[in-house]
Protein: PRELI domain-containing protein 1, mitochondrial-like isoform X2
Organism: Chrysochloris asiatica
Amino acid sequence: MVKYFLGQSVLRSSWDQVFAAFWQRYPNPYGKHVLTEDIVHREVIPDQKLLSRRLQTKTNRMPRWAERLFPPAIVAHSVYILEDSIVDPQNQTMATFTWNINHARLMVVEERCVYCVNSDNSGWTEIHREAWVSSSLFGVSRAVQEFGLAGFKSNVTKTMKGFEYILAKLQAKEAKEKEKETALAATEKAKDLANKAATKKQQQQFV
């Protein structure tokens, strides 16, 4: 039997902003369970879609009863996650699929997300999320799945908070850069006006 999760979230940022933030999500205060993140493959296919594969290392908190029942190799405190993604910039969609490549004897968590423009507000982005939690351990599979599903839901909350944190940082940086550009443009315009005034004054002196 498999535990299934279905959910939808909305980020009040444009798809382009969310796409940029997606690649810069870590580190953030809500993602301390993510230890490392590495791109292992990336390519642009002929239809101009971007394919990527990333390897993540995360902490793996297991219930105490599992630590007592199973050997350390099975309940090691780090889990390796593969994340495949495909980005379609023309249609503004991004689909991701993640799964753990160790601890599979204990539990497998698979997640599929689709990021697209919100149907009610084109300046927002919605995330459609599905997850499957399974375990093949005889006698305790249900308890393991319940634990895995609870942990997954908790991580979804952290993920969304982390996303919002990174988006806020990027937007603040963008606003600061625009402010600098505006100030620079104002300074250049002031210099230009001053030069024109000086030139006009010189011309009047020769008349």
